[in-house]
């Protein structure tokens, strides 16, 4: 059974057996998690999340960047939700999963509870993120179920696996936690443009810890749940993919930290728009802008007339227009104010989006047609699995500073970064409580 294989693999390996590139990619994912979770506190919607989670459960676990605390389960819920609020986290393009958001905060919360080490956080996070991606690839989704939100759907089981590892559970308990997570998996794409889009991801992190606790206490679960789960979602699942080449092939190496705070399928289009902007386009003389994208772009980011900043993160027209107007995009370009930006609005009115099967997920073609008949074309094509370049530590540090400095100040931000950058060397991550006190 897949669950037995996962329990056996997770319990018989450790940080020391992880490949070096998996360790490094996961370390950067942890740094990126803190950047986007803390940075979300600059936005009003974070208060709704924090207040809700604190009312659910109080305790002494930090909600990063807020100066507030809540319980073991509710802190993971809040931190997970915050890390996904700006849509600036990460994405595995092949599965459209944001694996760090449900997994890393669960690992950290249990690590604080158990005085776990930083290397354990890296290990459990790597395994959990790998499981999230593998579940998505193995189960898949039929078109009739395309409204499910993959991160919430598969994140619960992945977070449960990671939390179970941090609890130092047995192989049978890890296996059970993986299965327990499948029984409460949920989340819908219809919540795009609302706070619940991130709150449902946070629920997955919380339910993951609950699954791990239940498994430790002998709450039994059917091993057939994975087949039931898959059959309820897809007619063409390939469950063997969940564990095929486990430990030999690492899908987390194809997980991309986001350079832009919006749906990852928009990133090729943003980069194409930035290249087009370098041509010094005079938009007053432009008749229309044709944008050619893969069909998944309209499925995931097809809000053509966004009314709020949250909606604009799922709007292909806004993202392209904003990048043509301003260049590289940051959270401020997906705010309520940015949606009303006149330059962006004028360009957006001229954009026509074309959905084409022969355009892959890592490609966008932009054609600018002038009133005098002249045209300019940019074809940015990274391939079906590659939305953007991999961010290195310097890229993540710049992102961290951009997001965290305004929330906690430069000095405190520097202290947090200096502690976290070598988190794998920390013997007791409960020290994090003092850093965020």
Description of the structure:
The chain is of the alpha+beta class and 437 residues long. It folds into 2 domains: 2-259 and 389-435, 2-methylcitrate dehydratase PrpD, CATH 1.10.4100; 264-381, 60s Ribosomal Protein L30, Chain: A. It is 52% helix and 9% strand. It has 19 helices and 8 strands. The protein has helices at 2-12, 20-39, 45-56, 72-85, 100-114, 118-139, 150-166, 171-182, 196-216, 225-233, 267-277, 295-301, 309-312, 316-326, 336-339, 342-348, 393-408, 410-420, 432-435, and strands at residues 61-63, 68-70, 90-92, 255-257, 286-293, 351-355, 363-370, 375-381. Strands 6-5-7-8 form a 4-stranded mixed beta sheet, covered by helices on one side. Strands 1-2 form a two-stranded antiparallel ribbon. Helix 1 packs across helix 8, helix 5 packs across helix 9 and helix 6 runs antiparallel to helix 7 (150-166). The radius of gyration is 21 Å and the shape is globular.
């Amino acid at each position: 059974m897949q669950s037995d294989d996962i329990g056996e693999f997770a319990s018989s390996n450790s940080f020391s057996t992880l490949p070096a590139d998996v360790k490094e990619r996961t370390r950067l994912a942890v740094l990126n998690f803190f950047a986007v979770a803390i940075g979300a506190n600059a936005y009003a919607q974070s208060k709704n999340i924090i207040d809700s989670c604190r009312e659910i459960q109080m305790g002494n676990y930090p909600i990063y960047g807020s100066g507030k605390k809540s319980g073991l389960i509710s802190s993971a819920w809040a931190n997970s939700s915050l890390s996904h609020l700006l849509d600036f986290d990460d994405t595995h393009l092949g599965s459209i999963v944001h694996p760090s958001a449900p997994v890393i905060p669960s690992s950290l919360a249990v690590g604080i509870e158990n005085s776990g080490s930083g290397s354990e956080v890296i290990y459990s996070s790597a395994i959990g993120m790998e499981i999230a991606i593998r579940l998505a690839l193995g189960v898949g989704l039929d078109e009739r179920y395309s409204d499910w939100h993959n991160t919430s759907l598969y994140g619960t089981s992945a977070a449960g696996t990671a939390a179970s590892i941090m609890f130092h559970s047995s192989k049978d308990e890890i296996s059970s936690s993986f299965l327990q997570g499948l029984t409460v998996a949920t989340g819908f794409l219809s919540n795009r443009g609302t706070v619940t889009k991130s709150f449902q991801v946070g629920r997955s992190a919380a339910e993951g810890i609950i699954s791990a606790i239940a498994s430790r206490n002998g709450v039994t679960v059917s091993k057939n749940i994975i087949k039931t789960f898959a059959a309820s979602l897809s007619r063409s699942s390939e469950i063997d993919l969940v564990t095929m080449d486990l430990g030999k092939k690492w899908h987390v190496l194809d997980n991309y930290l986001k350079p832009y705070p919006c749906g990852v399928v928009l990133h090729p289009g943003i980069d194409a728009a930035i290249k087009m902007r370098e041509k010094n386009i005079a938009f007053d003389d432009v008749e229309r802008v044709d944008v050619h994208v893969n069909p998944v772009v309209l499925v995931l980011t097809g809000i053509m007339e966004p009314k709020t900043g949250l909606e604009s993160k799922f709007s292909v027209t806004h993202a392209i227009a904003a990048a043509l107007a301003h260049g590289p995009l940051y959270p401020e370009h997906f705010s309520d104010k940015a949606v009303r930006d006149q330059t962006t609005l004028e360009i957006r009115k001229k954009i026509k989006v074309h959905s084409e099967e022969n355009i892959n997920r890592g490609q966008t073609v932009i054609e600018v047609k002038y009133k005098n008949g002249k045209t300019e074309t940019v074809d940015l094509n990274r391939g079906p699995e590659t939305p953007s370049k991999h961010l290195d530590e310097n890229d993540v540090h710049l992102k961290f500073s951009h997001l965290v400095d305004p929330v906690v100040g430069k000095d405190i931000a520097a202290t947090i970064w200096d502690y976290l950058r070598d988190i794998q060397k920390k013997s007791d991550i409960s020290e994090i409580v003092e850093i965020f006190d």
